[in-house]
Amino acid sequence: MNAAGILQIVILFIALTALAVPLGFYMARVFQGESTFASVILGPIERGIYKICGIKPDQEQHWTAYAFAVLMISLAGMLIMYAIMRLQNLLPLNPAGEAAVAPDLAFNTAASFTTNTNWQNYGGESTMSYLTQMLGMTVHNFTSAATGMAIAVALIRAFTRRSVKTIGNFYVDMIRSFLYVLLPLAVVFAIVLVWQGIPQNFDPYVTATTLEGGNQIIAQGPVASQEAIKLLGTNGGGFFNANSAHPYENPTALTNLLEVIGLLVISAGLVVAFGRMIRDNRQARAIYAAMALMLAVGIGVCYWAEAAGNPAVYGPSVDVASSDQAPGGNMEGKEVRFGIANSAIFAAATTGTSTGAVNAMHDSFTPIGGMVPMVNLMLGEVIFGGVGVGLHGMIIFVIITVFIAGLMVGRTPEYLGKKMESKEVKLAVLSIIVFPLSVLCLGALAVVLPAAIPAITAAGPHGLSEAIYAYASATANNGSAFGGFSGNTLYHNSALALAMLFGRFAVIVPTLAIAGALAAKKIVPPSAGTFPTHGWLFVGLLISVIVVVGGLTFFPVLALGPIVEQLSLAAGSLF
After folding, report:
1. Helix, strand counts (H, E) of the chain
2. How much is the pLDDT for 79?
């Protein structure tokens, strides 16, 4: 670790906070139906969409109707995307002549992009046509992100209401998320990326002659538009197989910083919007502090582990310190233009959110360095998390935390004037248990079933890490992977798709049920016995609950995977 790397981390947090605050204020106004500077242009478009689609914006929904709308929109989008991939050989904008996508891979990919996971068992430039990339992947990057934002808004709204049966209108929340937030930011971000050299065209692939006299095919396409929303919407699916390590997706140090900020900024802004909408910015600051602290620790541990290098490779006579002549540490799987610090920042940020984009190969990290993104996934991606889903996932943990605090002082737990009773706590636990149930069960099958084992290319503890990482990534709707895991098989395409769908909708439905229950409650004024939820004591308790829940659940598999691998490498370096 060096001063330059630490400075980059500091710059990231300063820039993120500076952008998240005004964005959060803006989003709060949007979701409360208030006028903004964009209303002059976008207001008529919004009203036109309502009229064309037959949406009545003043007609609100019970939580069951809201959830049904979420499920139906998602199902329709998944079926449309599946059809596009299966028919892409017959559709236009296919200059490379890509064949129809195989049924199991199309099912996996459709489930992946519908759930905001963007797990890719294929190389984008060698499998998908331009039309599929735009009409399938890019469109779903918008719709899946807007869906997550709508659910967070519904949950926030529930805290502000008294004794009502409705939580808003899903179609209105989704359209506003898309029209006022995602689309404008994506357009601006895409223009910046084009300025930095990322392609945005419909040109055919280019054949270049290498220095050795061979031929190399250089893919083209509408890259910048997909890159922008893949990050802003915490989607993560790459136009190219190498994702954000590819120079056409992430060419410079500036684009790398902008991409990390891009994948964090809406999730961070939603925390600020939460404070504005509930009229208590102190609560938002507490949640933001918890998220930022966990992200900072994750970046720090990953950076330290990678800067220290691999003890099995670097002996006592090898200098692993960074200098002007050498980067030092573990550079395997990393781009030289980014180095160790930027690779660690990206890895922790992309798995702290549900983005899953990568600028380095996580499979090549040291065991402890690779454990950081794995743990981020296992905690449910509440370290800012996906747009919307990170915030409502954190609020689920807040409910559990205030319940535990209530047990300590012998009072009915309260949060924002709402009593957290048996129903809300049971639904919160049901939501949290989704992750270990899916990851551990499907991960166990992946290492014992004959149809699943060939996908694991590494032996021993690292092979276990590859399998567990895959199903943690799928369930957490992240999409990153240890590259040694070969998931494009009939078994894993199907099992991973089920993990993605379960991890998305088995969490969303209980969350909306909590929103419905909270909206129906009265708001109780705080009393002398009310546990304050805006101070550092609460921040510490909240982080402890998140870590303990994740630690107790997943520590055994971590001990058998990356921890024992690190210990074996260290032991091997002694001989």
Report:
1. 21, 4
2. 95
**Residue 470 gets which letter from DSSP?**
H
The answer for 329, left when phi > 0, alpha when psi is -120 to 50, beta otherwise, is: left
The C-alpha atoms of residue 560 and residue 555 are separated, in whole angstroms, by: 9
pTM reported for the whole predicted model: 0.92
In 3D space, the residue among 295, 201, 332, 196 whose CA is nearest the CA of residue 251 turns out to be 196
Confidence of residue 510 (pLDDT cuts 50, 70, 90): very high
| Phi-psi group of 380: left, alpha or beta (phi > 0 → left; psi -120 to 50 → alpha; rest → beta) | left
Task: Give, rounded to a whole angstrom, the gap between the first and last alpha carbons of the chain.
Answer: 26
Q: How far is 511 from 421, CA to CA, in rounded Å?
A: 15
Amino acid in the structure at residue 351? T
- pLDDT more than 70, % of the chain: 97
| Model pLDDT, residue 575 | 40
- CA 317 to each of CA 2, 314, 573: distance values in angstroms, whole numbers, following the listed order: 21, 8, 12
How buried is 574 (Cβ within 10 angstroms: 0-12 exposed, 13-18 middle, 19+ buried)?
Answer: exposed
**What residues have CB less than 8 Å from 319, skipping those under 6 apart?**
326, 328
Give the residue-averaged pLDDT of 252-264.
93
Tokens of 67: 């959830």
Give the DSSP H/E element, type plus range, for residue 369.
helix 367-378
**Amino acid found at 541:** L
